[in-house]
Each structure stands twice: as structure tokens, then as C-alpha cells.
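User: Run a structure prediction on this.
Assistant: Running it now.
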Amino acid sequence: MDLERFNRMLLESVGVGLAVVATDSHEILCANRRFVEWFPGESGIGRQLEEVFSDLDLSSLQERIDQGRSFVGEAQIKVKRRSVVMSLHLARAEQAGEDALILELQNISKVKELECMIGSYSKMVERQKRSLTREKERAEKLLLNLMPRSIYEELKTFGVTTPQKYDKASILMLDFVGFTDMAVADDPAGIVAELNDIFTAFDRISEQFGCERIKTMGDAYMAVSGIPEANPEHAENIATAALLMIRFLKRRNATHKQQWICRIGINSGPVIGSIVGVQKYVYDIFGPGVNLAARMEAFSEPMEITLCEDMARLIGNDFTLEERGAYEVKGFGPKRLYQLTGMQNDRASAPSLALSA
């Protein structure tokens, strides 16, 4: 077998299309079998590149060839009524004094289809990722409404939380007078909407004074200061929040037909904080401090704040108190009770905290 015949057989057996192109006229001079199969009729031989590849950037091609560089591009052709994407590689070749271009043509349609599929899959994954992120943010926001952030972070990190005892904490218990009668007699949806607005305002007050809303139970509202992060001003914070909640309701009642009258009990004492439930998480607090705050709320008159002598000793220098006398408190024995009426230095009147009713 002579070398020329071997080279010709090798040229015909390769899986890419090969052609010799005139440097000046861009005429296709000859091609291998693979190249010919891709073009019907005259198979492209004798035609110019711009005729065979209508979308070819000839100016860019000529510029790179003139610079002695190879040209790499893509073009689309019709093969048996089907669009096929071709990869083109053109390079100058000089041999025996003849100057020509060698064109290498490869079918990359499958590659393009795969790239398109990968692109579509990537977009789908990105959409799902954004959707999951939104759902995660919604779940996080919901859980942060049920528990303090530090408890949420512990739950997210370890999957469980450990009940904690807090020796220095202050609790606020608030309940509305005649709420059940209001909800039944009047428009229930309207009453609940107003209650939601009021609780939202209470949340703002609690947050501004370093308190944490623990939960609402119907028309009852519970907040605490000093947990889960210790706060040396826990008693002052809860007392200030209680005063501002009363002030907010008075301003609201002055401009609204529906009158909201509440009773508030506050107390300082030890509590235990923990998540309750497995499938439905609820963060709650327990202990004598909570129980005594509930007892103080029951002793309160409408639009009054009641506390006992133990908490009065903690805030007596900064707040104005009116003694109500000694009472038998269930589970705690005789206690001297006081009504919280104001502050010596009224920080609750700060302009930034003047909530609109």
C-alpha cells in the first residue's frame, strides 16, 4: 500500500468533515467523505464558504487568517431537513508552495442539546432553590413568632432545646374585660381584627423595652423580661411596658367606638423556659413567678396594674405606687398589693415610643 493511498483512506475514515479551501476566494476545493455526506447535491465542493455557511462571520474569519491565526466558529446547516449545528475550525496550511485553508467540520448538535438541557435544569434548580429559600424564611419567621431567637437558634443547630431556669425575670399578664361578650355580640371578624392590631402594638412596646412576648391565649397577652438573655433591668422594663400598654389603650379608646378595657398583673420571680410539643412547637414559661403574675392580674381593677410587695421593692424608687392593702393570694399566702400608677422619671413618654392609636 503506497503512502498516498494510506493517507487518503485515513482521511476518509475520520469522524470529522475535512475540506481544503482556497485562501483568497474561499472556494471549497476538495473534501473527505464525511464532509460530502453533510451536503446534498454538489456537496459543497466548488462553492464558496459564504454560500455553504450563510451565517458565517467572514470578516472575522479573514481578519484572523490574515493575522496568521486560526478561526473557530459555529454555523447552522440543513441536513435532510434537519437543522444541524457545526463547529468550524479554519487554519492556513502551506505545502509545496501552495497556500490553502484547511477546514475542519464537526457536528456538535448533540452537545448543544445537552448544554440546553443542562441550562434548563440549572434554571429549574435555581427556581427551586429560591422557592426553598422563601419557604425557609417563612418557616423561620413563623418560629420566631413562637419563641425567642436564641431558643430558635439552639433548636435549629441541635434539633432540641434544654429547659432553662431563670432566677431573675419579670412577667406581665394582661387580659381584657368582657372580651367574650364583645366577640359574641358584635362583629366577630371586626373584633378579632382590632385585637390583632392591639397585640401588634403591644409587641412593638415589648420589643422597645427589652421584653419578649411569650404567647397570646385568646384575649390574654403574656410578656417577659430577663429571658432568655439576662437583663438587670427586667423589673423596670416590664413595669414600663405595662404602663405604656395602658396609655396606648386609653388613647385608642378616645378615638374609637369599641372600648378596650384591660387588667394587668406584673411580678418578678424565678421561671423555667422551655419548648413544649413535638410536632407543634410552643415556647412557654412556668414557675411561681408566672403563677403570681396571673394572681396579680386577677386582683387588678379595669385599666389598672397590680403587683405585690416583692416586686414593689425592686421598682419602688423609680415608679409611683399606691398601696392597696394585704390580701390572701391563693398558693402564696398573705401578700401586700400595690397599684402601679406611673414613673418618677417617665421614660415611657419618649417621643420615639409614642405609638399612634
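Residues 26 and 272 are 88 Å apart (CA to CA).
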